[in-house]
Amino acid sequence: MGAMLLQMHGNQFAEPFRPDNRPRLRGRDLLPAALMLILLVGGLLAASLGLGGGAGQGEGYLVIAPPGWTLARTTGLVRAAGGRLVRPGGFSNTVIAASADPHFGQALENAGALFVRRVSGPLGCASPQETAPRPQTSQKP
After folding, report:
1. Whole domain around residue 62: which residue ranges?
2. pTM here?
C-alpha cells in the first residue's frame, strides 16, 4: 500500500513516515533551554531579595486608607503617624509612604489605615530618611 501511494504521487516523499524515524532527543539539545531557565529564576530571585541595591533603595509602606478618603486626608494620616509621602497610589486613598521609625506600620494602623504593607525596593527618587524638624519662623508683631 505504501509503495502504491509513493507511485501515485510521483514519488514525492523520500520514505514513508514511521514512528521509529523520529529524531532522538538528547540532553545537549535541552541545554540552552535549561540555561535560560536557570538565569531567569536566578534573576527573579536576586531582584526579589534586593541584591541589586543602589540609589533610591529603601523600605517604605503601601498604605490603604478607608474608601472615600481624599489624597489630602490620606497624606495627613501618614504625617500624623510620623512618616512622609513618597508618591500617591492609583486611588486617592492609597499612597506609598516612608519613615525611619521601626514602628511606623503600627502607627499607621492606629491612625486609621485599613491596610499597611511593608515594601522593599525603589521608592521613587528618594529613600526613607528621618524628616528634619521644620525651622521655627519668627513672627513680627
Report:
1. 57-122
2. 0.48
